[in-house]
Amino acid sequence: MDITLEVIPLPVSDIDRARDFYRDKVGFHVDIDQEVMPGMRIVQLTPPGSGCSIALGDSLWEMTPGPTPAPGTYQGLQLCVADIKAAHAEFVARGLDISEPVQYAPDDGATFMHFQDPDGNGWAVQEYRRRATEPLHELLANQKRQRES
Length: 149
Hints:
The two termini are 15 Å apart. By secondary structure, this protein is α/β, with parallel strands linked by helices. It has three helices and eight strands. A hairpin with a 7-residue loop joins strand 6 and strand 7. The longest helix has 13 residues.
């Protein structure tokens, strides 16, 4: 059985402001922005090349058990890029307030930069150079074919 992580609900205080931020400054694609049922608006955004999206909604948390997380309480969300210097330049050109890349070790996967959305939800961007030649979706498809043969 395959199980995929495809949507992460993200607590924000203003759906339109968050949608505009993730679309315009971070470069996510808006997949859905509509009232999906009476009284429930969902905005779903996906990073380019990703199989996982974020969901913003005004009534989203009423559908899940447990406490409602406060806007800005999510920390450690992580994006991966093949070239962190190019990604940094693109983010800065979009107007994103993002830290300079910091390399913690020479190994692939050890360079990071960080930003926060308007509510304070914290994101890391990790350089994983291997993704330039080995996109994750291709690796997963190859693994699945190997398991099935």
